[in-house]
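Appendix B, example 12.
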Amino acid sequence: MISFFRKIRQKLLTQNRVTRYLIYALGEIFLVVIGILIALQVNNWNEERKEHKKEREQLFFALENLKTDSISIDSIKSRTDKILAVHHNLILLSENKIPEDAVGNLDLIRASEPNILIIKKNNPNLPNEVKDQELRRILLDHYLLIDWLEFTILNHNEIIEVLVRPFLAEKKLLNFGQQIETDRQKFDLINDERFFEEFKNEEIRQVLFESGVKLRIMRSNIERFAQKNEDLKQAIMSYLNKN
């Protein structure tokens, strides 16, 4: 092909047809430029196709993480509600509205909460890699809420580990020997009799007040997160269906 065009150029030059030669040369340049542009377009199309495939894979992976987080947040909510129920019953007990045996499992007041949400941990850069601006905004809002929820969980755990558990040990309210019990149905970490005797004092009520406040804030954020988690799942599924 190159030798063919070279022969045409030489023929035009030898025949002293300069005008035709210039027209031919411009045409040849035009064809080269068109060829380059087509090659660039094909390359761009291939890159866009790869990026689109990568984005879909990332979003499908994120969607699975969100489904796992939905299960995790339901478990966190259930555990938190049980602890709050004990706190509520202790308030009723302090007002002589219920008997001691109606309070519930006292072991729950010393329980901390593991942070087992995975969407942000497994996909830290996802908001920057998604092309759709609205989906990016929803992701960023969700990640900010995760930060706030994790902060409140850490605050609650700190109260439990720094204040509640040391207080229970200092007042000798724990049943030694139960700490190695493997059957959760037989857990009896807090001695009910000694606890209720101590509960008559204001000091333990102040300790439980602080942990109850942190627990209530955490529970409120859990509810918000659960709704946002569902909203994000729906947004991702809608985006994937359209793209």
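The helical segments are 2-14, 18-94, 119-122, 126-129, 133-170, 192-198, 202-242. The two ends are 42 Å apart (CA to CA).
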